[in-house]
Amino acid sequence: MIRASLLVLAALTVALVVDQAVAGELVRFRAALPMPSVAERAAAEREGESTAWDERPALTGVLSVPLGTTGRVPAVVLLHGCAGITAWNRQWTRRLLAWGYAVLDVDSFGPRGRADVCDAVFSIAPATRALDAFGAKEFLSTHPRVDADRVAVLGMSHGGWAGLIAARASTARRLDAAPFRAVVTLYPWCDGDDPVASPTLILVGEHDDWTPAPRCAEQVARLDDNPEVILKVYPGAHHGFDFEGLDVVQAGHVIRHDTDAAADAVDSARRFLAAHLGHE
Predict the structure, then answer these.
(1) β 182-186/146-156 pair status
(2) Taking the mean position of all CA atoms in its chain, how far away is CA 219?
(3) What CATH number should be reported for the domain holding residue 172?
């Protein structure tokens, strides 16, 4: 069954490659890294070493801008799951473009020599991918078609986990960066109790056996019911409930599309982004 699920995912990935419905430009940028402190810089200079800021990992992504628009538009950084870029990315890129957002679909794995991390989720850690998101945001801030003050993150599963880390006030502070205007996460692994700097929407299925909903409820409770953090749990839904056409078992976990949950999640994401990016 696991082999069958991987074959389905591979087929969906191929469909993503050959589908030309969404045109985009391959772009290159660097991940963010915390700025070295004054002491760290001084020590590096004494030793003749470069600082971490000079060694930011090189990444790639596909940047798509909505057709029929002019001037600067708000943008969404898209973070894939543990299986890498699949048809899920194309599905959400289509939606976001239709809503009027530019989309930077970040490939966190390919430039690092990995196809997926589903069996070793920390081999490219979610915290690392949160830095990828900030690097993408920095890149977008220089693009002539993007409104640098209106950039959000949308991530699923492993990418949603990274999105939650990107939302933390401590992450933006370490990078000396402005926080994202909004963060939308689909079935992320919830942990930590760090205060958030970005309004955050968490969408998860009641029967998710990979990233359990109770973990997210506990995390939101630890944040003292911060009104900037919204949790929606979909009754009867499993992991991947928004992934059209998928009903498999991967790594022992059920991944199953749920029409009702998907419809509400899409509408909730649309409304949340519109409210915080000031875009209808």
Answers:
(1) parallel
(2) 19
(3) 3.40.50.1820
Per-residue pLDDT reduced to its tens digit, 240-262: 999 998 899 988 899 999 999 99
Query: Structural domain tally of the chain?
Result: 1
Token pair in block for residue 280: 């209808």
Dist. CA 22–CA 20, nearest whole Å:
5
Domain ranges, residue 107? 2-277
Distance between CA atoms of residues 160 and 157, nearest Å: 5
Helix axes 158-167, 126-140, angle to 10 degrees: 70
Bridge pairing between strands 102-107 and 73-79: parallel
Reference 232, options 188, 280, 198; nearest CA is 188
| Runs of H (alpha helix) within the chain | 2-18, 38-47, 87-98, 126-140, 158-167, 169-175, 213-222, 259-277
Would you state the structure tokens that stand for residue 257, as one six-digit string?
């599309």
Per the CB < 8 A criterion, the answer to whether 187 and 201 are in contact is no
- Check if the beta carbon of residue 56 is closer than 8 Å to that of residue 30: yes
pLDDT, position 36? 57
Summary count for the chain: helices (H), strands (E): 8, 10
Q: Is 263 exposed, middle or buried (0-12, 13-18, 19+ CB in 10 A)?
A: exposed
- The residue-averaged pLDDT of 110-126 equals 94
pLDDT digits (tens, 9 = 90+) for 22-43: 669 999 999 998 765 556 556 6
Q: What is the dihedral of CA 212, 93, 91, 16, to 10 degrees?
A: -110
Upper half-sphere CA count for residue 271 (Cβ side, 13 Å)? 8
CA pair distance 107, 78, nearest whole angstrom: 9
- Distance CA(152)–CA(77), nearest Å, equals 6
